[in-house]
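Worked example

This section walks through a single chain of length 394. The input is the sequence exactly as stored; nothing has been trimmed or padded.
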Amino acid sequence: MTVLTPGAAEPGTRTLRPALTELRLTACASHVGVTLPVEPLTILTGRSGSGRSSALRAYRALARLAAGAPLARAFPDPAGWVPEHMGPDGSGRRGFRVGCTVDGPAGPVRLDLAVQVEPELRVAGERLTGADGTELFVTALRDPTRSTVQAAWYTAGAAVVTRAPFPDDRLGTAVVPLRVAGRTPGQRRVLAAAEQVVVALRSVFVCDPDPERMRATGPPPAGTERDTGRLLPDCGNLAAVLRRTRTECAQRHARLVAAVRAGCPGPVVDLRAEGPPDGTERAVLDRGDGRLTPVQRLGDGELRYLALALVLLTGPGVLDVDPATEIPSAYQCLTVLADDLDRSLDDRQVRELAALAAAMCERGHVRLVGSARGAAQLRAGVPGDPLTVVDLDR
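Given that input, the structure is written out below as tokens.
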């Protein structure tokens, strides 16, 4: 196990699958000048108020922006992101700064974003920097009366850069593939860097299992988001997804059953969905000898453990995520964000979940970035160095 303090990021290993390797909270919520290393299995720890949840929310906001969401959707409470001590500048403007580094085929690429909150929410500036320090794409708010920012990107052709207006309520990096032609080596380098960042950020699943939602019975209403056949962040449509995963991949389902057996008391020979005569649909634990335990009878810890294990053993095709469809899945890596990972779990469940996460992250198809109140039981479940603990109290 590796224990790191903010700012102690180490160089990542080059991979074909773009992955976020550090999150920078330059001036964001309660964080100022903080750089958080992000490894395949990373857990943020710290006391209440240390900023664990806000760090994960910042990651989630960047993911939403990379998927094309406007600022207002990525930051629904923008005033809460401005550090309390930060007063307005000479023009009455207040805002915050956040960024990340994404490693991949194009090398480590830095994305830095400045957001103006007052007097109105808009992008104040953005910078995409290549591995050698070249500024590949830059935007700046030049004219406050216009709803655009001035963008410039590296060309290395007859002109060193190309300039054009970009929307002031979107992440420019996500717009680059639609605006840059890729005619020169410089433009192709800009495209490669932007696409690497977008691919890494879009493949994110925010997992926060809600035991009450999971205890609800009956099929999801037709035509609603709960009728997509993909697992939702609250895992409230667990039964419908189990019906699908049990038939699609017997090997992974067997691993899920083994994980549930290790983390839930009593015998478990299977986990499945069934439809009783009254027409409802429910998930059940098969205890053997014909005994079935509906998940509605399980405790909050058992339900959260079950849901988190299912998430780690599935992928973008089963989870409600929006990956870059134009990029083959072999070149993408799913990242699971899980705040309060150990909430309601007992020590054994935390150890088993950590062991499962380490095994799945080691295969390279999934990454887990979460937060927990403490790391002792997580360490007990993951011998060696697969687990990186970032202590925000240090």
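What to look for: Confidence is low (pLDDT under 50) at residues 1-5, 7-14.
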